[in-house]
Task: structure prediction
Amino acid sequence: MRDPDDVLADLCVIALVNDDASLAHNLETSDLLTRQGVPLHIERGAASASIGYNAGLDATTAGIVVLAHQDVYFPPGWHVHLARAIADVERIDPDWAVLAPFGMCAETDAHIGDVWSTGISRRVGERVSAPRAVQSVDELVIVLRRASGLRFDPALPRYHLYGTDLVQMAWAAGKGAYVAAMPVVHNDDFKAALGADFTESYAFVRRKWQAVLPLRTPVLWVTKRGFGLLRYRFRAWRGLSKRRALAGDTSVSPKVYAVQCGWEDAG
Ligand SMILES: [Mn+2]
Result:
């Protein structure tokens, strides 16, 4: 296993922030920042996630970059999971580009990983003991190896599907993207529907990757004619009341959810 202290010494976190209360309630309470002292770089008001994260990459120098939502909480010892994941992935793919706690397996279309989601009050994902190659990752946490040279596409509009776009760019450049066991809490709000901003990101990804479609993202399919989005919207509308009933309480400390999942000791 790569020494967790070596990983810590070459690590930074970047967050795109538009809700300081959520940041203070979740990401900023993580052991990774409070006790391990990993620096947090914040970008505000970026025109898109891609532009914001590229600015964050330009403003930092760490070799391992953790791009995290403001509503994500890293349980204590997460850097040990990360160190193990890096060591494991470097044995199979020394030129890896992306690691993540949650994504979609290319062969089986299964949700891979281990994440608590408050929006659906569930621990989700098929747990893995070794890194699994994926066709897309959820945007809640993306770990990027800076030396891979991979960056976000500034032409991708808005704040959606940049995990899918990044993973596809990685594989297109001959570099790997993997999900590994590094559980986190996503203390996310219930989402009633995907808005017009999602349609913009979806249309871009559909056009850009038409040669490799269909693509499975953690939320829906990107398909040649866009039927994947229509189908998602219909199902989301039909299941709205059921989904609303599943939504958890994001005002609860994410530590409570981490304790429930067995990732942290109570107290
Ligand atoms: Mn989030």
